[in-house]
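Practice problem: predict the structure.
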Amino acid sequence: MKRTSLVAALSLSALLAPALSLAQSPAGGAQTPKARPRQPKAEADPLAEIRRTTAISLITSLADEARSFRDETLRARVQARAADALWETDQERARSLFRRAWDAADAADREAQRRGEEERRRQREQGGPAVWMNPPNLRSEVLRLASRRERALGEEFLAKLEEARKQQLADASLPKAGDAPRADTPENELMGDENSHAQRLSLARQLLEGGDVERALQFATPALQRVSRGAIRFLTDLRGKNPAEADKIYAALVARAASDPVSDANTVSALSSYLFSPQFIITIDRGGSYSMESAGTKPLPENVPEELRRAFFQMAASILMRPLPPADQDRTTSGRVGTYFMIGRLLPLFERHAPAAVAPLRAQMAALTPDVPPRQRNENEHLLTEGLVRDDQPRRDDVQAALDKLSRASTPAERDRALQDAAFAALARGDARAREFAERVEDRDARAQLLSFIDYDAVSRALTQKDAEAAFKLARDGALTHVQRVWAYTEAAKLLAKDDRGRAVEILDEAAEEARRIDAEDADRPRAMLAVLTPLFELDAGRVWSHMPDLVKAVNAAPAYTGEDGRIVIKFQTRERASIRSGNVDAFNLQPIFSALARDDMNRAVDFAKSFTGEGPRASATLAVAAAVLKEPAKPRPSS
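Answer:
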């Protein structure tokens, strides 16, 4: 009611402004009070106020509608984003929306975990390695938005996460005989990413990135009592800003790990990352499947105190040489296979820094050898050096090692595996022979996957080097899917847009033609169209408006398209090997284009958003329009 009165008053003021306008005083010279004109007070632009009121109404209505959405993911996201957008206007309502969003996110995450377990089980039953894309972590999304607005609300949600974790611990406290521990069970903080500690550390790392070291430490401290991947990554980042504090916390973790009965080879591996491979954290499970979590390019820590290094090796030796129970009673995350590989991985470090432990470790490794199949030993051999080789040390030639295996291969399958190894090793080194090796693979499906993987990598490298024409040519001639080719074309066009608008538009036209080759019902079609329209808006907004009906038609024809979670994915998977790469592509989502449209013409943008038949696209587009308007800086009404 108060806001309506304000708008009416401002509108009346706008009507009277011409009659009340005053002439500007001339520049220079002092003015007497009588002669000085009265300066009009800065007034809010009534049109901007109307736009904001409309945006708030859109968000409020959408938040109410979201309560009945069938999709828990959409319900959580819409309510959380609505709460974030409404925070400055109505904090009480925003808190209520955040709590409703949390409940929906909790349900959605649990369902996604169940489906993920089923998919991993299905792939493993088929034999060979399993590969999958992790679903979005919705509780993390809600937590991030809420914590940014109010720390107390963030702590409330973290406490709920902890309660859920304790319940899972209680449910899992009496495992059935013979059950293998899962990598994502709640007691395994090292391997899991869903518990409150992982979320707390993720938030703390964001604070660190923003330069707020003190608050980051306050937030992270409760989660720094046990070894986890998140704890090690946080400490690695903290050491760049406060080495003494990071080393102190790390020393306490090392001491706890040495006396903790659940510590195993993966615990040792994570702690070794802080000192010797900060760019990687490698974990390996009981079956030999491994994960290599990249922490980006990180330098080796400098000026490490000798007592800290000595404490690490004492702890590592004591854990790795613990007597192992029979295989059917082994409850460690690493098992015998993982322990074997971790000993082999760290032996060179022991030889340099703690030689007295080498002989007992070699004996332990020999005792474990019968539990590790020969093929697994060969295929995971690269784990022994990954991330640990110093720049001043000779690097192992993995390409030549693969070619040596090729020369000894006696069957087509063995030759294909050796050629795949050679291709991936060459790819990692930027060796042009990667494609040559891939073309020699006999298995047609494996060859096609490998060529696509290699060509995608080549395009990515060219884009990273900002060589737009090379990326365009590689994408045009390479073995890419339609949507991958559209992505490459549009990224190349963005690089050219500033200096050669004409060429950028030409490439976008080719990308649009490629997008039309995608089946109408395929969710990749609207993704590809959006990837074209988003950069085109900056070059020719009129053309984009004219293409919006076609976009609406494409979105409505593809039920699987949600308007969110745009990714570019490249995967290689056979019975013997699996590798996957993915990256977020914001231009595949509705938010960027609708934010741009809203700034140009809010009403038309709203009309197009309402044209989507699916709940997800309609909500995503509507939120994008409203949020873009609310983010506009307040502008005073121009005086007449």
